[in-house]
Amino acid sequence: MSDYNDNTGQWHSAYMAKTKGMTDEELRYVIEDCHNAMHAMPSNPKCGQYADEAHYCAMELRRRTMELRHAKQKRHERIHHKFEVSAIHAKYRRVLNDIHEEAKLSLTALVKDKPHVVEDKLDRIAGMTEQLISDSLVADTKRKMEDSNA
After folding, report:
1. Which of 17, 39, 111, 125 is 20 to 30 A distant from 1 in Cα terms?
2. DSSP assignment, residue 9?
3. C-alpha 6: how far from its chain's center?
4. How far apart are CA 27 and CA 133, in angstroms?
5. Could you count the other beta carbons within 10 Å of the beta carbon of residue 84?
6. What integer best gives the mean pLDDT of the chain?
């Protein structure tokens, strides 16, 4: 590792890389040790280095915390999506059942020579089918976007 005072900035990069290999306990220990050293002897010329070490360790702990939080959020979103898809599938089943019932009523009306009733029923069936297809496309688009982000 390069020297802290060599003015190249390499020490900082090397120390930040080093913190990635440290455990959480080691990072917390370094933070506490640096703070204790700075408070014990504030006029020490190494106080700047101690402050940087403590800062880089705290940055690494924060990065890990945010990664965990992000992973938990993604997991929550995947679980929520499964429930949402299940609810959409239940809605589709209900709509398809309604379409089936409408078709039966339409055929019954057709047999009884009521073409205007048949037309109305067929229009309702067409509307339900359009809604079903639209909802399906929206759900597929959402799923593809979530899959590409995961």
Report:
1. 39
2. S
3. 42
4. 54
5. 14
6. 80
Which residues, at least 6 apart from 95, have a Cβ–Cβ distance to it below 8 Å? 128, 131, 132
Contact present, 110 and 118 (Cβ < 8 Å)? yes
Average pLDDT over residues 78-86: 66
Q: How far apart are CA 102 and CA 143, in angstroms?
A: 31
Residue-range domain boundaries for the chain: 10-149
Run of H or E including 101: helix 47-111
Position 63 pLDDT exceeds 80: yes
C-alpha 100/C-alpha 148 separation (Å) is 36
Q: What is the pTM of this model?
A: 0.51
Our CA dihedral for 137, 142, 143, 146, rounded to 10 degrees, sits at 160
